[in-house]
Design brief:
single chain; six-stranded antiparallel β-sheet; globular
Length: 71
């Protein structure tokens, strides 16, 4: 929810994920991308992951996504 700054996650199949209201990029590799959020660190895991769009409000990641988890 944008009012409270809670992350909003949209998944399209197993190849694309869009995250709004993230707090920053913590780490990035082809196997794992970690983002800070107001409710913890979000980890997107998979193969051939890459950031295709990033701005102050959201990020779009593409690749073969196998797992999404708060760590």
């Amino acid at each position: 929810d944008t009012v409270f700054g809670i992350p909003s996650i949209r998944i399209v199949g197993d190849m694309t994920i869009e995250i709004m209201n993230y707090k920053g990029l913590r780490s990035c590799s082809p196997a794992e991308i970690k983002l800070g959020t107001c409710i913890g660190e979000l980890c997107v895991c998979g193969n051939a992951l890459g950031i295709v769009e990033i701005n102050s409000e959201g990020i779009r990641i593409q690749g073969k996504i196998s797992r999404i988890a708060y760590v």
